Amino acid sequence: MRLLLSVLLLLAGIVLAGISPASAAAPYTVDSIMLLQPQEALQERIDGAEPLAAYIKALNAAAQEHLRQAAPGAPASGYIVVAVRADGARKIWLDYAPALPAAVSGPLRAALERVAPMRVRRGAAVFAINASLWGGARASAPPSPEEWRRAAGRAGEPVEVEDLVLRIFDGR
Asked: pLDDT by residue (tens digit) across 75-89?
């Protein structure tokens, strides 16, 4: 609980940084942050709330800047889902409804992948940013990227989120 509270307090600065609703058609509006692992597991993997909050802020700034310069798109609801592995490798999934066109998702993902990741001590740290694009409604269902659904199907049994993303990193 302490890590989540710390992250939330540090992320309160997002509003001050201008990554909040400015109008109904803002290109990027952060609605919430979702930790996709138990807090105890996440605390074992990262160096505290500050690096996580700083990484999330940097991702939000990259998304905001990229989408501010992009041609306006259709309203979309969903998540930027992020996994960072201990070796610094990271994967970013854009889980939006309606699905983002390749002309939007490719450059946005590239902008997000240019952000230096936080340090992860072991395994992987996994979280999602619930963010609306171009005035879309806040996502209410949990994130479930297509690649995750395919990997879970190949596993043939329920898999914890960290194990699932590590399987994806390994090509399974």
From this structure: 999 999 999 999 999
